[in-house]
Amino acid sequence: MRQGFRITVFAAAAMLCAALPASAHDAEAALDVAFASTGGGTAMVAPRWAAMTARMAAEDAAPRPAGPACKPAAKTTAPGCQAAEWGRKLDKLSARPDVRQLKAVNRQVNALTYVADTDNWAQADYWATPREMLERGGDCEDFATAKYFALRQLGFAAADLRIAVVWDSVDREQHAVLLARAGDRTLVLDNKRADLTPLAAVADRYQLLYALDDGRIALPLQLAAAEQPGAPQRTRNRIVNGGRTLVMQIQPRRRLPGATPPAAPFEMALAETSAPAGR
What we know:
CATH class: Alpha Beta
Oligomer: single chain
CATH architecture: Roll
Helix content: 25-40%
Strand order of the largest sheet: 2-8-7-3-4-5-6
Structural class: alpha+beta
C-alpha cells in the first residue's frame, strides 16, 4: 500500500466494537468483525472509493472497441481490450463452485503488475478502477478492489466481501486485502500470497484498521466502553513498531441542546507518523 493510502479523516462512521486482540483466537475474531453491520448504510463512503466508482460509471458509458480489434491475432493494446478479455475470463468461471472462483480470481489478479501510485499516477494515493488496474497495474488496494468487483460480477453478495485495511506487523506497513466468506469460512485474498489463506493463518500478522463494506467505512475500535457512564471521553490506540507509529483515536460527537441525534455518535481520527509505503 502506498504511503498516501493512510488517512487523516474525521468521519461520522458507524463503528464496529472489538477489543484489540490478546490471543490468536481473539486476533482472528478481530479480523472477522469486519463483517459486522455498518449500521444500515449510515457509515461514510470512502472518498476515493466514490471517485473510483464514478470513473467506473464513466468507463461503462464510453464507447467500446470493436470486437475484431480486441482479438489476440490483432496484437493490439487498444483501450478496453484488456477489460473485454477479463470479462471473457470471468464468464468462464461463472459455473464453477465458489471456492474455485475465489482461487481463480485471486490467482489471476495477483498475476497483474504491482506499480506504486507515485510511479503510476504521480499521486501519493490513487484507487484504480478494475479497468485501470488491468491496463496499468496498481498497488495493494487496487489488487483488492479488482478482486472485489470481479467476485461481485460472478454473483458474490456484497455482504460476503470486505476490503480490509490492516497493519502488517511483519512488513511494518499498512496493507489492503480482500476478505471473502465461503460457507462457514472466511478466506483472505492477498496479493502477498499466491493461494487463498484461511483467516486464522494471518490473524497474528494482520491487525484490522478499518474495513470497506461496499465502500462504506467501518472501524473495529474499542468503543463499547466509551458508552458506559464515567468512561473516558476518548479512546486512543497506538501501534508502534521499529519507530513507526500508527495512532487511532475515537471520541464521542458533541450534541447541541435540542439537536437531532447524529446517525453515528462517534468521530474517528486515523493518523500516522513515519508509516512506510506498502505492497
